[in-house]
């Protein structure tokens, strides 16, 4: 791998460009390190594509089979961060279970269940449930 670095007062901010013939684990790691600096944008993987996800597009984060995903209104992308780090980074999201966080801006409505949980219907048509463990914080964050 060739690395070139140029420093000048002419640049307002750092820019990283990667030229490669294929996506490798080393390139993914470099991209992940660089994206940690950018608090507003998260990058997700879809096949061999790396796609930026804007904060306003995030519907929910969830873990499934030891992998973390970000669901937007149009697609679901693989994320290389664990939920607890995403929770620290995106404080507008609300944790509703050990394996899921949701964006309150995408809540369509709530339904109370007999089991003591709340069914959350999202604007994109998805449905999920709060666990009893996270219920108190969920209600507090929503003001109910």
From TrEMBL:
Domain HTH LytTR-type intervals: 43-144
One GO molecular function term of this record is: DNA binding
The protein's superkingdom reads Bacteria
Kindly give the InterPro entries that the UniProt entry links to this protein: LytR-like, LytTR_DNA-bd_dom
Query: Which key words tag this protein in UniProt?
Result: Cytoplasm, DNA-binding, Transcription, Transcription regulation
Q: Which Pfam families match?
A: LytTR (PF04397)
Tell me what this protein is called: HTH LytTR-type domain-containing protein
Q: Specify the species.
A: Vagococcus carniphilus
């Amino acid at each position: 791998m060739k690395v070139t670095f140029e420093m000048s007062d002419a640049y307002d901010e750092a820019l990283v460009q990667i030229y490669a013939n294929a996506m490798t684990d080393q390139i993914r790691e470099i991209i992940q390190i660089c994206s940690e600096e950018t608090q507003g944008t998260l990058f997700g993987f879809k096949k061999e594509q790396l796609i930026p996800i804007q904060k306003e597009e995030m519907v929910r984060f969830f873990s499934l089979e030891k992998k973390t995903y970000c669901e937007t209104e149009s697609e679901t992308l693989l994320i290389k961060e664990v939920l607890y780090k995403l929770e620290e980074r995106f404080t507008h999201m609300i944790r509703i279970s050990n394996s899921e966080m949701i964006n309150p801006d995408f809540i369509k409505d709530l339904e109370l269940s007999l089991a003591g949980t709340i069914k959350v219907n999202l604007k994109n048509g998805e449905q999920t449930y709060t666990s009893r463990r996270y219920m108190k914080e969920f209600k507090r964050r929503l003001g109910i």
